[in-house]
């Protein structure tokens, strides 16, 4: 089945998640030049993969305890390969290699920092902006351990983006490096929910706790939180192609177990594999491919910390390290095939993948000609795990991103949600009735309601007014902008109301806003 995707809307029986993607109709099958076909390691063929896919979701699940600690034990008992769990390198040749045991050791310390030093409790939200440094992975695992909800952001965010994310999420803790700390400081006063700021740097910045120093103070003794499978685990902001970025919440099981589809089937990883995924640490793709999918399979997560994408560095890295599996964006492959690949021999590389945008058939063809390897495409969204993809053993059709993933019933449907005949263009839908797949996001976290005050803020007592209001409302943004937005929690008392000209209650759901005057 070839999936053609057209527009975005919602309907009853399926959760429609397609975006305005025009998928080119492919004209011919890829010509085989040099061919290095590797048989799937984790499944026989597409049909049997779908048939045998069966994941039982337990009531309680925590990836750190139920997956990472299991690999740690296997490692200790000599039941896993000697590959590191995390293999990090940078442009200066510095390397960090952590076994699952070392990952456990450092992340337990960081978990103690979050809980003991920062007083963060289960369910509290942690906003993380770090580039591809090993500590990014530690924060991920430490949040799992403490049951705190991780909200990753990309280093490209502006002060306005950061402010919006912090206000919308109500994050209590921010973690970043010295490049972004000053930017966060410019908006911190507008984000009263923040109680802790952690800095990854050799330099001290006033008001920021030093992550490395704090980790040196605490023990590595930490008991992982016994989280429910459906409990909030992470919130990713979508990239905002079709509107404002949406706060997409995932549970411990939706990614922690759901991404088995990616790791076992699409990436076809085992504990013998070294997997390099180049995506930025702020997007859901990093949770997919740099955390959950490879570690579910016990594979080694490889990272090259490049300040910017450089084709020579990528090609050199692929030829100097035993990387078996490589995933990058179609744009990156386009750049790579323009370089002189013949200078390099990829000794271990056997499986290449791409996702995030359509790949041009010419790029696939060129890559195959130069390396002998196919590029397997994947399609998914922040809200999902892999929705569709080309899986090993499948014929690769230029212009098609493959077939539905196991775990999802994916169909091409019309506006009413009726399945369209083969070859007809429509929307892409995932069936959510009668059973909603557990590997879907939980909800869009919305700013449920807030009031907009139109008061005489120029009056001398505006500070007192804000203080007074703060005792009755959840959040008051700093007085830098009119009208001021305030999270509504209760009726406003007379002492306050006398100073306010107008109060509007605004309900904001993603994509729409309702407004009602509730005062004067
Ligand atoms: N293989 C692919 N081919 C074409 N497009 C793809 C592919 N993989 C992913 N995409 C695009 O990436 C999108 C998923 O990205 P993401 O979840 O960040 O949200 P977004 O759709 O870009 O933004 P928003 O939901 O905020 O509008 C898909 O909807 C699709 O547009």
Automatic annotation (TrEMBL):
Cofactor(s) annotated in UniProt: Mn(2+)
Catalyzed reactions per annotation: a medium-chain fatty acid + ATP + CoA = a medium-chain fatty acyl-CoA + AMP + diphosphate
Assigned keywords, A-Z: ATP-binding, Fatty acid metabolism, Ligase, Lipid metabolism, Magnesium, Metal-binding, Mitochondrion, Nucleotide-binding, Transit peptide
Subcellular localization: Mitochondrion
EC numbers on record: 6.2.1.2
Matches recorded under SUPFAM superfamilies: Acetyl-CoA synthetase-like
Biological process annotations from GO: acyl-CoA metabolic process; fatty acid biosynthetic process
Keyword check for Mitochondrion: yes
Domain spans labelled AMP-binding enzyme C-terminal: 444-499
InterPro entries the record matches: AMP-bd_C, AMP-binding_CS, AMP-dep_synth/lig_dom, ANL_N_sf, Mitochondrial_ACSM
Cellular component, GO annotation: mitochondrial matrix
Keyword Iron: no
GO molecular function, one term: metal ion binding
Taxonomic superkingdom: Eukaryota
Pfam families xrefs: AMP-binding, AMP-binding_C
Domain spans labelled AMP-dependent synthetase/ligase: 83-431
Recorded family membership: Belongs to the ATP-dependent AMP-binding enzyme family.
Name of the protein: medium-chain acyl-CoA ligase
Organism from which the protein derives: Cyprinus carpio carpio
Lineage, opening ranks: Eukaryota, Metazoa, Chordata, Craniata, Vertebrata
């Amino acid at each position: 089945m070839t999936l053609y995707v057209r527009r975005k809307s919602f309907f009853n029986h399926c959760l429609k998640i397609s975006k305005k993607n025009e998928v080119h109709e492919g004209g011919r099958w890829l010509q085989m030049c040099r061919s290095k076909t590797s048989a799937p390691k984790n499944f026989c063929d597409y049909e049997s993969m779908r048939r045998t896919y069966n994941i039982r979701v337990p009531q309680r699940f925590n990836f750190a305890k139920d997956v990472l600690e299991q690999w740690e034990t296997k490692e200790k008992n000599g039941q896993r390969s000697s590959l590191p769990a995390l293999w990090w390198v940078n442009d200066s040749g510095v390397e960090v290699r952590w076994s699952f045991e070392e990952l456990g050791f450092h992340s337990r310390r960081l978990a103690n920092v979050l809980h003991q030093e920062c007083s963060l409790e289960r369910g509290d939200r942690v906003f993380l902006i770090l580039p591809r440094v090993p500590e990014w992975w530690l924060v991920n695992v430490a949040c799992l351990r403490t049951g705190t909800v991780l909200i990753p952001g990309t280093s490209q965010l502006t002060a306005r983006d950061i402010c919006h994310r912090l206000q919308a999420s109500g994050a209590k803790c921010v973690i970043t490096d010295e490049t972004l700390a000053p930017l966060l400081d410019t908006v911190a006063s507008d984000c009263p929910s923040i109680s802790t700021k952690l800095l990854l740097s050799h330099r001290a910045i006033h008001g920021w706790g030093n992550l490395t120093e704090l980790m040196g103070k605490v023990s590595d003794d930490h008991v992982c939180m016994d989280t429910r499978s459906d409990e909030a685990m992470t919130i990713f902001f979508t990239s905002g192609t079709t509107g404002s970025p949406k706060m997409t919440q995932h549970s411990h099981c939706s990614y922690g177990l759901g991404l088995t589809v990616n790791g076992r089937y699409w990436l076809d990883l085992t504990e013998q594999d070294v997997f390099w995924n180049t995506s930025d640490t702020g997007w859901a793709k990093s949770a997919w491919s740099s955390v959950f999918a490879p570690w579910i399979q016990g594979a080694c997560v490889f990272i090259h910390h490049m300040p910017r994408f450089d084709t020579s560095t990528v090609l050199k890295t692929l030829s100097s390290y035993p990387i078996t599996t490589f995933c990058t964006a179609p744009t990156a492959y386009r750049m790579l095939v323009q370089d002189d690949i013949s200078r390099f021999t990829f000794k271990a590389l056997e499986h290449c993948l791409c996702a995030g945008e359509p790949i041009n058939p010419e790029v696939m063809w060129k890559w195959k000609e130069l390396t002998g390897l196919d590029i397997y495409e994947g399609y998914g969204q922040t809200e999902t795990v892999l929705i569709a993809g080309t899986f090993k053993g499948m014929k690769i059709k230029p212009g098609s991103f493959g077939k539905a993933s196991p775990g999802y019933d994916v169909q091409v449907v019309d506006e009413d949600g009726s399945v369209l005949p083969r070859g007809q263009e429509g929307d892409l839908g995932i069936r959510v009735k009668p059973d909603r797949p557990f590997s879907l996001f939980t909800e869009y976290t919305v700013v449920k309601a807030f009031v907009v005050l139109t008061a005489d803020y120029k009056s001398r007592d505006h500070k007192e007014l804000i203080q007074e209001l703060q005792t009755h409302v959840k959040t008051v943004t700093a007085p830098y902008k009119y009208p001021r937005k305030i999270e509504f929690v209760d009726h406003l008392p007379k002492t306050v109301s006398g100073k306010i000209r107008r109060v509007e209650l605004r309900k904001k759901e993603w994509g729409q806003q309702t407004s009602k005057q509730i005062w004067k």
